[in-house]
């Protein structure tokens, strides 16, 4: 049996700091141990933050990322640091949500990926942003993202 080389990680097993912005954040990937099967990986970030590019006020979102890996899976510590790098990044809800999806697709080249950005209201209007890389593979079980529509105090 041939032993596969261990992947090199920028963060895993090392002391890391939160990147100042997403442009310098590093998303690490690891070989998918089950690349012969279709399965869904889900990451949920209920306290995602970024900055409004117009007002400088903080924006908050509940993100749900689902993907079907191909050859690679994302290393979770690097994903956490990448998502935290948006804390001081000025961008609209749509830009943040779609950029995260596209950055993950560029790094992982998954069979399929979707992201739901459920943004908390500011100015009285919640904004939900959804993006996916295409059609999911046939036969893959896709659970509901589990985030109720915003109902205020009702």
From TrEMBL:
What the entry lists under HAMAP family is as follows:
QueF_type1
The main place the protein resides is cytoplasm
Key words, A-Z: Cytoplasm, NADP, Oxidoreductase, Queuosine biosynthesis
What does the similarity note say? Belongs to the GTP cyclohydrolase I family. QueF type 1 subfamily.
Source gene? queF
Location of the protein in the cell = Cytoplasm
* Pathway participation: tRNA modification; tRNA-queuosine biosynthesis
Q: What is this protein called?
A: NADPH-dependent 7-cyano-7-deazaguanine reductase
| Annotated binding of substrate, by residue | 74-76, 93-94
Pfam families linked to this entry: QueF
Entry GO CC: cytoplasm
Catalysed transformations (reactions):
7-aminomethyl-7-carbaguanine + 2 NADP(+) = 7-cyano-7-carbaguanine + 2 NADPH + 3 H(+)
Kindly list the GO molecular function terms attached to this UniProt entry. Answer: preQ1 synthase activity
Q: Where is this region: Disordered?
A: 1-20
**Where is the sequence biased in composition, kind Basic and acidic residues?**
1-11
The Gene Ontology biological process annotation of the record reads:
tRNA queuosine(34) biosynthetic process
């Amino acid at each position: 049996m041939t032993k596969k080389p261990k992947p090199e990680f920028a963060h895993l097993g090392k002391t890391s700091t939160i990147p100042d912005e997403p442009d310098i954040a590093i998303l690490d990937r690891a070989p998918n141990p089950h690349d012969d099967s279709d399965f869904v990986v889900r990451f949920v970030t209920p306290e995602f933050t970024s900055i409004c590019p117009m007002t400088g006020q903080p924006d908050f979102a509940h993100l749900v990322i689902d993907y079907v890996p191909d050859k690679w899976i994302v290393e979770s510590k690097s994903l956490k640091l990448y998502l935290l790098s948006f804390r001081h990044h000025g961008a609209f809800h749509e830009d943040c949500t779609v950029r995260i999806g596209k950055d993950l697709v560029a790094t992982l080249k998954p069979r399929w990926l979707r992201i739901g950005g459920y943004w908390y209201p500011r100015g009285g209007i919640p904004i939900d942003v959804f993006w996916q890389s295409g059609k999911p593979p046939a036969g893959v079980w896709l659970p509901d993202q589990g985030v109720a529509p915003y109902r205020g105090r009702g």
